[in-house]
Amino acid sequence: MSSDRRAPRVGVIDALAYYTVEPDLPPGGWSRLQELTARARQTSEEMQREGIPVRFLRSIYVPEKEACFYLYEAASQQAVEEAARRAALPFKRVNKAIGPGSEEGRRMT
Questions:
Q1: CA 60/CA 86 separation, integer angstroms
Q2: Under DSSP, is residue 71 helix (H, G, I), strand (E, B) or coil?
Q3: Measured at the alpha carbon of residue 35, what is the angle toward residues 31 and 37, in degrees to the nearest 5?
Q4: Does the pTM of the predicted model rise above 0.85?
Q5: So what's the pLDDT on residue 62?
Q6: Partners of 22 in the β-ladder
């Protein structure tokens, strides 16, 4: 019996960050928010199965501003942009966000 026991190899995982996607107002208005949110969630799940580290977390609707934001966790802004494109979500911009407990968030308090 060999005593050559090797520790299991662990792959390198990029640090994940939070990103917001600010979608354009869809035709028909925000009444389609549930449908769009479901599409965003399904697309990110498909990308995860492909090994792309992107996760849809939630949608945030701000009625006073007639604005909506999608919150993602991902390894890169490009992954989030690709998720939005695959979900057919026309968007204005993608921004890096400060997550709870992040180094940036602790510096702001």
A1: 20
A2: strand
A3: 105
A4: no
A5: 92
A6: 93
Phi/psi for 44 (5° steps) reads -65, -35
**Closest by alpha carbon to 73, among 91, 55, 92, 52?**
55
Copy the structure tokens of residue 28. Answer: 């028909």
Domains of the chain: 17-98 (3.30.70.3090)
Residue with tokens 């965003």: 40
CA dihedral sign of residues 105, 107, 108, 109: positive
CB 89 within 8 A of CB 56: no
- If pLDDT is split at 50, 70 and 90, which confidence band does 12 have? very low
